[in-house]
Amino acid sequence: MPTLKQLSHEVQRAFAFLAVFGFHLATETFSGGDSYRDGFWLTYVRGDTECRIDYTDMEFNATVAGVVIFGPGRHLQFSGNMFSREHLLACLPRLSEVVNNELSIQFDSAA
Predict the structure, then answer these.
(1) CA distance 69 to 40
(2) Domain of 51?
């Protein structure tokens, strides 16, 4: 099973496309220990806009400017937003594709 630190680095690698939208990693934060309830938060910034990727309690969430891109009630092409560490690792290519597509739509419509 991957550690939270390993998983965080894999998420960062899978979401490297955020740089195309002008975001850069500002903070990487971990909770307590290494239990299934623990997790991490990645905060990317672009000017005054924040993109957060959270993985806690086995739930994966992504928000941009407070708008849920992937999470509870918004998990396009998935049955939900809960993933064990192993399953999250396996789903990262699809998750990053979904978030990339959503950001493309969001930023194209804002232009």
Answers:
(1) 18
(2) 4-104
